[in-house]
């Protein structure tokens, strides 16, 4: 799917040493973001009935070194 989204017009996705690299005109990008919608359910409410105003995102400590 990534290859379809980012190939052409100077964009590229390459795999090297188990890591995916997004690039533009032969240069690796320094950062990339991926977002996913989360379903809201009853467990997201606080004890007092108010909603959690946090971002709800999970951080990942996975990295690839060059």
The level of helicity is under 10%
Oligomer: single chain
What is the overall pLDDT average?
A: 68
The tally of strands reads 3
Low-confidence stretches: none
Shape: elongated
Secondary-structure element sequence? Answer: HEEE
Radius of gyration: 18 Å
Q: What share of the residues does DSSP label as strand, in percent?
A: 15-25%
Order of strands across the main sheet: 1-2-3
* First and last CA, distance: 24 Å
Largest sheet: 3 strands, antiparallel
Number of helices: 1
- Specify the structural class: mainly beta
Folded structure, characterized:
The chain has about 70 residues and is mostly beta strands. It is built from one helix and three strands. It has one helix spanning about 1-5, and strands spanning about 10-15, 20-25, 25-30. It starts with a helix and ends in a 38-residue tail after the last strand.
Task: Provide a quick synopsis of the model.
With 66 residues, this protein is mostly beta strands. It contains one helix and three strands.
Key attributes of the depicted protein:
1 helix; three-stranded antiparallel β-sheet; mainly beta; single chain; 3 strands; 66 residues
Helices and strands in order:
Blueprint: H1 2-6, E1 11-16, E2 19-24, E3 27-28
Antiparallel strand pairs: 1-2, 2-3
